[in-house]
Amino acid sequence: MAQSQVNLDSDSDTLIDSWEILHFGSLNHPDGDPTDDPDGDGRDNKFECDSSTNPQDANCCLFTTVSSEFDPNGFEIRWPTIPGKKYHIEVSVNLSDWTKVGDSTGTTPHNFLGTGATITANFADPSNPIIVGAASREVWFDGSIAGNLNNFKNFVENGGSPIAANGSEWIPETQTPSEGGSNYGDRIRGYIVPKTTGNYNFYIAGRHQCEFWLDTTGDTTDGIGLVRESHLTDNNLTEEQKWDYLSSQGLADTQKSQTIALTAGEKYFFEIWHTHAGQWDHLSVGWELDGSGTIEVIPGECLSPNVDFADNNIASFISNPTCFARVVTYSPLGNANDDAGPLDSDGDGIDDATEKLLDGFNPFLSNSANGGQSDGV
Questions:
Q1: Euclidean distance between CA atoms 52 and 113, whole angstroms
Q2: pTM value?
Q3: What is the Cα–Cα distance from 170 to 134, expressed in whole angstroms?
Q4: N or C: which end of the chain has fewer CB within 10 A?
Q5: 38 and 55 Cβ atoms separated by less than 8 Å
Q6: Per-residue model confidence as pLDDT tens digits over 272-322
Q7: CA angle 349, 282, 131 (to 5 degrees)
Q8: What is the dihedral of CA 265, 267, 268, 269, to 10 degrees?
Q9: Which residue in 253, 247, 255 sits closest to 230, CA to CA?
Q10: Which residues in the chain belong to E strands, given as ranges?
Q11: Which backbone phi and psi does 158 adopt, to 5 degrees?
Q12: Can you list the alpha helix ranges (DSSP code H) found in the chain?
């Protein structure tokens, strides 16, 4: 059944209705005024709504003021994130004038995408910034995909003129959200950076077809040596994280990779391709160290997203004896076409973070809940 189009702020109090109901249960709670600070963390409801954080939990807050002076020789900043939010890092040498970290011209800020976990950005070496805590995920919707990897790849590649994804995000581990829709494909890319040197086996579980590729040869970061290490390409549908489904059925165990030697601190480029037709969907890739028998989804602390921030303006700041840094994000009511606006991947007027909270809404489909008309007013 189609739902009503969403008016983000029906009572015009500068607070998103869904945020008010989630945290206060109504639009007229006595602690729900924009200037109230019910958890006493120094951030009022307006600030917490703009940040999509919890106004009744002092530990759930984006502190965008300067937390500390950073060492120019080791510029690293980390912060907790909310799924669907866009963040910018800003730097200053005087606490008055702030500049966004972006390309070397200073005209295009670098976007950091929220995962629901912590993101770490290290620009100690401006020519080789290190982002830790996420992998990149792109999503395409089309009826021709229909749970078939060959169809999906042909659709994306489009005879040499690649089709742009409907949306992209960062995810905090090598496991994708469920209930992502029907007739879609997603591609997860980035770098695995193990903390421990050893012999690894990789495992894949999913519905429907999926495969995991890894580059371990030559320059392990360029993707030229990608090898398919594990896959599910028949009509075998596993339960979530059911790593031994094929072997338990007496079938050839393509879920498990060969044993691969990895070095701690080395970056290894990877890709995961996954398609889904309908009903229940899921995908996960796990790893096992030295035949331990323990398989876990690869955590964000061992992942870097597929982004290139080598072109940046950091060098001009860290040459100063004193520098400060902060992280900012933006109100859902802002203009998504502006740099200082929210992330709205499908352009329906509802920011991605809000759509992720609303039942039946998809941040990558503008008419996901309204049967042909835009989700937003």
A1: 13
A2: 0.92
A3: 6
A4: N
A5: yes
A6: 999 998 778 899 999 999 999 999 999 999 999 999 999 999 888 877 777
A7: 65
A8: 150
A9: 255
A10: 69-70, 76-80, 86-92, 99-100, 112-113, 118-122, 130-132, 135-141, 167-171, 184-192, 198-207, 210-215, 226-232, 260-262, 268-276, 282-289, 296-297, 303-305, 323-328
A11: 50, 45
A12: 17-24, 45-51, 149-157, 245-248, 315-318, 352-357
Closest Cα partner for 27 from 5, 43, 12, 41? 12
Choice between 93 and 130, residue whose per-residue pLDDT is larger: 130
Average pLDDT, the chain: 90
SS3 86: strand
Domains of the chain: 1-62+335-350+358-377 (no CATH), 69-126+310-328 (no CATH), 135-305 (2.60.120.1560)
pLDDT at 146 over 90: no
pLDDT band at 363 (very low <50, low <70, confident <90, very high): very high
Q: What would the two tokens of residue 365 be?
A: 């489909």
